[in-house]
Amino acid sequence: MVSNRYCPFVLAAVVFMTFSHAVAYDPLDPTGNITIKWDVISWTPDGYLAMVTMTNFQMYRHIMSPGWTLGWTWARKEVIWSMVGAQATEQGDCSKFKINIPHCCKRNPTVVDLLPGVPYNQQIANCCKGGVVASWGQDPSAAVSSFQLSVGISGTSNKTVRLPKNFTLSGPGRGYTCSQAKTVPPSVFISADGRRRTQAMMTWNVTCSYSQILASQHPTCCVSMSSFYNSTITPCPACACGCQNKNNCVASDSQIRSVVGINTPSNAPLLHCTQHMCPIRMHWHVKLNYKEYWRVKITVTNFNYQINYTQWTLVVQHPNLNNVTEVFSFSYKPLIPYKSTNDTGMFYGIKFYNDVLMQSGPEGNVQSELILEKDINTFSFKQGWAFPRKVYFNGDECTMPLPEYYPYLPNSAHGTFSTLPPFLLLILLAFW
Ligand SMILES: *[C@@H]1O[C@H](CO)[C@@H](O)[C@H](O)[C@H]1NC(C)=O
Ligand SMILES: *[C@@H]1O[C@H](CO)[C@@H](O)[C@H](O)[C@H]1NC(C)=O
Ligand SMILES: *[C@@H]1O[C@H](CO)[C@@H](O)[C@H](O)[C@H]1NC(C)=O
Ligand SMILES: *[C@@H]1O[C@H](CO)[C@@H](O)[C@H](O)[C@H]1NC(C)=O
Ligand SMILES: *[C@@H]1O[C@H](CO)[C@@H](O)[C@H](O)[C@H]1NC(C)=O
Ligand SMILES: *[C@@H]1O[C@H](CO)[C@@H](O)[C@H](O)[C@H]1NC(C)=O
Ligand SMILES: *[C@@H]1O[C@H](CO)[C@@H](O)[C@H](O)[C@H]1NC(C)=O
Ligand SMILES: CC(=O)N[C@H]1CO[C@H](CO)[C@@H](O)[C@@H]1O
Questions:
Q1: CA–CA separation, 299 vs 296, rounded Å?
Q2: Is the C-alpha dihedral spanning 317, 323, 329, 330 positive or negative?
Q3: What is the DSSP string of 151-162?
Q4: Phi then psi for 237, rounded to 5 degrees?
Q5: Which end of the chain has less neighbouring CB within 10 Å, N or C?
Q6: pLDDT tens digits, one per residue of 159-188
Q7: What is d(CA 160, CA 75) in angstroms, rounded to the nearest whole number?
């Protein structure tokens, strides 16, 4: 299956990926981050009551099930008396407390969201979603997660409180790096009738940013291509996502029933065997050429037997996305990180229709078609222009084939144009 001609390319792709993700900066979402805001709502006899709000400002990277995990280190000997809307995963050693026992005595607590459906008295607004947080681009109202905690044995004024240190965020898994907590101007809250403003006693912010290279050693998706003008299907590069799982992949959907539950290594994903070994493949097919428009078909396929991708997102960069006329079956939203360019957009599923990309198998794909209006000055089928420049799935960049393997227009490839049968030539001339 693995043909030799891909080998130099794989190397080049790996080098390229390593290079392009070395910094925690995403050119398609330059201000994307997750901000964690602590508002001290009131002082208590031995500490304070704080409202913690996590906002996902990333346009297209959400927090999937099993959700976020937040950790920090207390500056002194603080304890958490109680929590609402979340819980510390470990209580730690509270043996020195006799009457009231704290919720958590650890110096470095680890907090997770509660699951949906917890009793009403344990809930607050924006909690209890199993740690799942939507991306800002998809649904800003669901891009927030909050909890409340009562902290003891801490300072009891804005001069004596010490900010927690060393924040860690798993979203889920690695990838996020958090800044130090920084005191910011106190948050202002407006009452329900809009006629009264109150403010926090004290507020601090922590900003966490994502880096794909920290999240995973290998890419997690790849792109394949085809077109109406060339019968070649350009596959994903061989081992585009590393071939480390090649030995325990599943050869056919019928085999999966005998494999699941028997020998599934806990951490390694269970993938369908492919030459690219990616959990996700996006296929871009240049389908039709009209006089003023052209049509593309997009298919996203899940090769992972262990994940249903809920609230999936797909980001595509292509110069003609400034003239998208119609998108079928997916929601579409242009992303305009820089005012001067409008060449990037995000696709995501329609709620209750195709917002879940099902596990590998017959249902494990989602499809869409889009119609783009040609801009006479830039439009071309030559030089692979009709294919995307960059593709991200769930916020992780997908490996592209090398340009030399793109399906080429017969005339621009290797001078085959002139050797084409005359009737094909006529058709081609009519189109370009
Ligand atoms: C975090 O994101 C918000 C919203 O995009 C932005 O205003 C803010 O500057 C970002 N913060 C950092 C430190 O990047
Ligand atoms: C503490 O509060 C006082 C008055 O409310 C304010 O003037 C001061 O700047 C605050 N200090 C800090 C560190 O927030
Ligand atoms: C910060 O947290 C990381 C991981 O939890 C740990 O390895 C490191 O030692 C901590 N640093 C401090 C100063 O507590
Ligand atoms: C702190 O975070 C909130 C978002 O939760 C944001 O609105 C606010 O601007 C941030 N403050 C600063 C000074 O960055
Ligand atoms: C995915 O969803 C289907 C239908 O809801 C369910 O039967 C299946 O067990 C789920 N798979 C995983 C890996 O969660
Ligand atoms: C960007 O392109 C989309 C079409 O894909 C269009 O609807 C939108 O108005 C454009 N926005 C700007 C700022 O040019
Ligand atoms: C189709 O594209 C392939 C890959 O780029 C190229 O090798 C081939 O020559 C093209 N076919 C024709 C008929 O030009
Ligand atoms: C042919 C066409 O509609 N071109 C438009 C493409 O989008 C740019 C910017 O959004 C417009 O300026 C063009 O007129």
A1: 10
A2: positive
A3: EESS-SSTTT--
A4: -60, 145
A5: N
A6: 999 999 999 999 899 999 999 999 999 999
A7: 11
CB 340 within 8 A of CB 319: no
- The one-letter amino acid code at 221 reads C
Q: Whose CA is nearest to atom 8 of ligand 1?
A: 31
The confidence band for 388, taking pLDDT boundaries of 50, 70 and 90, is very high
| Atom 8 in ligand 2: residue holding the nearest Cα | 158
Burial of 9 (0-12, 13-18, 19+ CB in 10 A): middle
Residue 278's CB is within 10 A of a number of other CB atoms, namely 29
Distance of alpha carbon 345 from alpha carbon 45, whole angstroms: 51
252 vs 259, 263, 276, 362, CA distance in Å?
Answer: 11, 16, 16, 11
Closest ligand to Cα 165: 3
Test site for ligand 5: of 359, 360, 365, 366, most ligand atoms within 8 A of the Cβ: 359
Q: Is residue 138 in contact with ligand 5, taking CB distance under 6 Å?
A: no
CA 15 vs. chain centroid, Å, equals 22
Q: Torsions phi, psi of 224, nearest 5?
A: -120, 165
Predicted model pTM: 0.86
